[in-house]
Amino acid sequence: MSLVLNTTDGPINLLCVYAPTLTSLDEVKDRLYSSVESIIRIFSKDENLIILGDFNSHVSSDNEARPRPLGNFGVRKYNGNGRRLLELCSFFDLCVTNTFFSTGKCHRVSWRHPRFKHWHQLDLILMR
After folding, report:
1. Domains held by the chain: number
2. Tell me, what CATH number does 48's domain have?
3. Do 15 and 1 touch, CB atoms closer than 8 A?
4. Using alpha carbons only, what angle is made at residue 67 by residues 88 and 126, rounded to the nearest 5 degrees?
5. Which residues, other chains included, contact 84 with Cβ-Cβ below 8 Å and sequence gap of 6+?
6. 105 C-beta neighbours (distance < 10 Å), count
7. pTM
8. Is residue 109 a contact partner of residue 75, using CB atoms and an 8 Å limit?
9. In this predicted model, what pLDDT tens digit does every residue of 86-124 receive, in sequence order?
10. Helices (DSSP H) in the chain: which residue ranges?
11. Which domain holds residue 68?
């Protein structure tokens, strides 16, 4: 879903994304990321862009490997979906804003695995 807010400071482009889970087929993930890339390309690089969503990915807090899109406050290690998301962020100069703010861990996570009881940071906000 996308929405453009016309403000006095220029347009603010909002995208809402729900990404497939880690166990989904690669073809399904490829279609989603291809769609997101197509939508991002519509907007001028100097327009505000905010992407909100459940990305079903772990992006970690290892910002030494990817200093541009990541801050110091991610959760856990990145996974395959996280790698896809970070590649998208690097290509389109987006940052994962959730990882830039020092908050309590309970405010960084959004889902708890029912069997293993580990908390995960799956809901992310990306900005250009």
Report:
1. 1
2. 3.60.10.10
3. yes
4. 40
5. 29, 33, 57
6. 10
7. 0.84
8. yes
9. 999 999 999 998 888 777 776 666 767 788 887 767 788
10. 26-42, 80-92, 105-108
11. 2-127
